[in-house]
């Protein structure tokens, strides 16, 4: 129940601070951009935008929320209640994945076509959003300023955009298979015949593995750099 309460709190927090209005505007800009893209490139461009959107949303907004909550003193009353860091992290990942999923479908619809594999497409957006959100929280927990966060989160995220080079046929290496975003691109751009079972299992597996690693890292970062400093260096009362 605590996890559901935190999820609702995050959705309200995002609404109160205008996150949804910002994303309506962003999606409108994407829609305008796609109107000027030649038809032959429209599908490829839509996939690339859909790929970048949950990544950017998770990276920037998740970390921004953590820093904003810290400045507003939200963490102090939150973690003197029986709140788990696990519930906090999953609520952040869940709430932003909802926004990413809606934005991803809106962007793709603007291209004038629907995904060949809607379930794979949706899974790609959600798993990418949750991974980037957890990565962002891990970075934000270690920084006190927005400038320091924005600089470092780009450093952490840079390797994960490399599979785009293969997607655009600029450069390919089997090392991309080790990155979760290779799985993302396969799920988002599944061919008309659908993904093979092997490709589907690979994509889901690599994204889940990286999500698990990002969760562990975000949990440890948040526990050490945020929870333990609540109350100006107190020992923290949240359940780990």
UniProtKB/TrEMBL annotation:
InterPro entries hit by this protein: FLQE3_permease
Transmembrane segments: 20-38, 44-68, 119-141, 148-170, 200-218
Keywords for the protein's UniProt record, in alphabetical order: Membrane, Transmembrane, Transmembrane helix
Signal sequence coordinates: none
Annotated Pfam families: FLQE3_permease (PF24686)
Protein name (database record): Fluoroquinolone transport system permease protein
Organism: Paenibacillus lactis
